[in-house]
Specification:
The protein is an all-alpha fold. It is built from five helices and no strands. It has a single domain, classed as Helix Hairpins (Orthogonal Bundle), CATH 1.10.287.70. The longest helix is centred in the C-terminal third of the chain and has 33 residues.
Length: 118
């Protein structure tokens, strides 16, 4: 048993060392069932925006994804803008709904992290 004890201490030290790094990557959030559902909605929202802008504006998938992320982050650089009336109408609905979904996801992160701190 004495031979395994130093190994066990080493493993526990490694786990403690990597715990802060793991928290950066949201492992604790992804392991929560409700958080996974909210994350799925957020990813689906980005995919819907990407495919919609590709179809409505004829942008490449990368440009469409870029515009979707920039719009939902409320940054709005202005380098890409919707030009058709249908794309403009979609953008209004997309941004309002997308921001709500992203805020719900960030709130889930807050809830999971606050439970972990208790």
């Amino acid at each position: 048993m004495d031979e395994k004890e130093p190994l066990r201490q080493t493993v526990e030290e490694e786990i403690r060392t990597y715990r802060p790094i793991r928290s950066l990557f949201l492992w604790d959030v992804v392991s929560d069932r409700d958080s996974r559902a909210t994350l799925s909605w957020a990813v689906a929202t980005l995919l819907i925006g990407t495919f919609a802008y590709h179809w409505l504006e004829g942008w490449s998938y990368l440009d469409a994804l870029y515009f979707s992320v920039i719009s939902l982050a409320t940054i709005g650089y202005g380098d890409l803008t919707p030009t058709t009336p249908l794309a403009k109408a979609f953008t209004i609905i997309y941004v309002i709904n997308g921001i709500v979904i992203l805020l719900a996801f960030f709130d889930r992160i807050r809830v999971v992290r606050s439970k972990r701190m208790k």
